Amino acid sequence: MQEARIATLQRMPIFGGIRADILQFVLDAAAVVSVAAGEFFFRENDKAQSMFVLETGEADVLKSWDAQQYLLGQLTAGDCFGEMALMDLFPRSASIRASQACTAIELSTAIFAQIYERDLEQFALMQMNIGREVSRRLRIADERLFRARIEALSIPTDWRVLT
Description:
alpha+beta
């Protein structure tokens, strides 16, 4: 069973290139949490001390505005969430609510500190992988923002910027 979980983790972007012994350490140290459909992993503005890797189920990424919840995206098995707060040390920027029953591996800041002490190279690789994931999400957000601004301007499709 553990070998299958390690193989699954190695296929996930944030664990790409991470050795099996480090992943075994992560699995031994991490908590596995179960969240029922409709329940929250965490809410926007909560203090953050961990990130999650979704093993099963689906979850919604929600953002509050003017007392309303808006759907920003959806997460499926293999996706990670909560990693931004570990990097920037700010409270949670969004809420994560299970849309189906979910299980997730919870990686605390303490686990990352232990990986740092155990194997600096693997720690650095994991941090780079997390940075890449955050960067990928930023690119998607930038593209959405750009498209929304263009649509708001109602620029004709035959209009071109000349440089």
